[in-house]
């Protein structure tokens, strides 16, 4: 089991170190190799995704990724900016299925901005298609408007596209994920207005017939945005396109208290995956030792589950995290009166100790 460890920038190295510590404590014989990526890749090799880093990632069973980016790289040409590393890895490895579980831990119910009763016990899974949609559709560009209300004015345009096979494969991923959970899928679209999402709805409905044990319903994205804050527990698995998924998954992340708690996985059809916290490199708190490492530690648990076939070890990590929260240990982002404030490293150490108790 080969793992490429790519810590990246900002708090990336601090939080990844804690996840690596937890993985090592499990004694699974994982072969972990570290390489620079993002701004760190640019500093070391002149490129955010150096060829040696890409090769290491391609040859690995899974990638444990921290975060990339820092304001100091804002003036670089777009292809050299740290964020290009993550786009390059998604593209090179064909990582089309993004899993973002939004779980509200019992101990953090009061950290959510919603009423406790709305989020208590929340456990939903947003599955976002990651390689298609308006983010990559051609043609795109700028031109002089050929028609419309302001002919001749400067105009920008993007193209929303999905092919049937792209929708089919993400639909299968969603239905199979639902089979392991409470067997409900909500497909989110905008079929009332967009042809792309009429095809989406048609194809998801067809694929759904192969999973008679899973209940499927469809929801327009505007209503889904509303329902996520009105009654989030009505959802189980939510599957949607790249842009709607980008927005809804960030919205859902806020239900759970802190972005520092949220793991994510991006998978291809060979079960190779990239695992990273949902947050960014948090340059505002980098180097202070106060970042919450739990999103990254929980991402490592997802890695064991989805790419390495180590379900028992994944559950041990998740149980250890729960135990540490139950003991009242909190990094600054989830701290509240009556709990114990700990550093990034102390949190990682506590999870390692808790592993012995679960
Ligand atoms: P961010 O997620 O890095 O930070 C947002 C806020 O959340 C900040 O106040 C930060 O201190 C806090 N925060 C984030 N993670 C935390 C943690 N583990 N513990 C405690 N607090 C935490 O988003 P922001 O500020 O918009 O972006 C910063 C940089 O990260 C940018 O360069 C951006 O491009 C990059 N970024 C990278 C991503 C990736 O590597 N996949 C994803 C999102 C942003
Ligand atoms: Mg986002």
Structure description:
With 358 residues, the chain is α/β, with parallel strands linked by helices. It has twelve helices and 14 strands. The strands form three sheets. A ten-stranded mixed beta sheet has the order 2-1-3-12-11-4-5-10-8-9, sandwiched between helices. A two-stranded antiparallel sheet has the order 6-7. The radius of gyration is 21 Å and the shape is globular. The chain binds 1,4-dihydronicotinamide adenine dinucleotide and magnesium ion.
How is this fold's topology laid out?
Layout: E1 2-8, H1 12-25, E2 31-34, H2 39-45, H3 51-59, E3 62-67, H4 84-93, E4 97-103, H5 116-119, E5 123-129, E6 141-144, E7 154-157, H6 164-179, E8 184-189, H7 195-208, E9 215-220, H8 221-230, E10 237-240, H9 242-253, E11 263-267, E12 273-277, H10 294-306, H11 311-326, E13 329-330, E14 340-341, H12 344-355
Helix pairs in contact: 1-10, 1-12, 6-7, 8-9, 10-11, 11-12
Residues 11, 15, 67-70, 83, 86, 259-260, 276, 279-285, 291-292, 295, 333 line the site of 1,4-dihydronicotinamide adenine dinucleotide.
Summarize the structure.
With 358 residues, the protein is α/β, with parallel strands linked by helices. The protein has 2 domains: 1-97 and 264-358, Isopropylmalate Dehydrogenase; 113-256, Isopropylmalate Dehydrogenase.
Features:
358 residues, alpha/beta, Isopropylmalate Dehydrogenase, 2 domains, ten-stranded mixed beta sheet, 12 helices, 14 strands, 38% helix, binds 1,4-dihydronicotinamide adenine dinucleotide
CATH topology term of the largest domain: Isopropylmalate Dehydrogenase
| Measured distance between first and last alpha carbons | 24 Å
Bound molecules: 1,4-dihydronicotinamide adenine dinucleotide, magnesium ion
Strand % is 15-25%
Global morphology: globular
Instruction: Work out the radius of gyration.
Output: 21 Å
**Element string (H = helix, E = strand):** EHEHHEHEHEEEHEHEHEHEEHHEEH
Oligomer: single chain
Number of domains: 2
Structure annotation, total helices: 12
Largest sheet: 10 strands, mixed
Average predicted local confidence, pLDDT: 95
């Amino acid at each position: 089991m080969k793992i490429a460890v790519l810590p990246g920038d900002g708090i990336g190295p601090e939080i990844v170190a804690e996840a690596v510590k937890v993985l090592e404590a499990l004694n699974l014989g994982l072969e972990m190799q570290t390489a620079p990526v993002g701004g760190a890749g640019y500093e070391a090799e002149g490129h955010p995704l150096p060829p040696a880093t890409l090769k290491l990632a391609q040859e690995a069973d899974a990638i444990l990724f921290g975060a990339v980016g820092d304001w100091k790289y804002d003036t670089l040409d777009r292809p050299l900016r740290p964020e290009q590393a993550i786009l390059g890895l998604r593209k090179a490895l064909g990582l089309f299925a993004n899993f973002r579980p939004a779980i509200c831990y019992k101990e953090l119910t009061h950290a959510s901005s919603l009423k406790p009763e709305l989020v208590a016990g929340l456990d939903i899974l947003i599955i976002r298609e990651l390689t298609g949609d308006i983010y990559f559709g051609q043609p795109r560009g700028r031109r002089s408007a050929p028609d419309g209300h302001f002919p001749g004015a400067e105009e920008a345009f993007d193209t929303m596209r999905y092919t049937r096979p792209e929708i089919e494969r993400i639909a299968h991923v969603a239905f199979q994920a639902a089979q392991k959970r409470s067997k409900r899928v909500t497909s989110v679209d905008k079929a009332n207005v967009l042809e792309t999402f009429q095809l989406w709805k048609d194809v998801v409905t067809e694929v759904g017939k192969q999973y008679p044990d899973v209940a499927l319903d469809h929801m327009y994205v505007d209503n889904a945005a509303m329902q996520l804050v009105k009654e989030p527990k009505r959802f189980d698995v939510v599957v949607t396109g790249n842009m709607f998924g980008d927005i809804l998954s960030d919205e859902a992340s806020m239900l759970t208290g802190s972005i520092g708690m949220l793991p994510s996985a991006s998978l291809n059809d060979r079960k190779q995956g990239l695992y990273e916290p949902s947050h960014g490199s948090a340059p505002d708190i980098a180097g202070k030792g106060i970042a919450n490492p739990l999103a990254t530690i929980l991402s490592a648990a997802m890695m064991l589950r989805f790419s390495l076939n180590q379900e028992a070890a994944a559950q041990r990590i998740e149980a250890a995290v729960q135990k540490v929260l139950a003991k009242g240990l909190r990094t600054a982002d989830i701290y509240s009166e009556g709990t114990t404030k700990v550093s990034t490293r102390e949190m990682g150490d506590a999870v390692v100790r808790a592993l012995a108790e679960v």
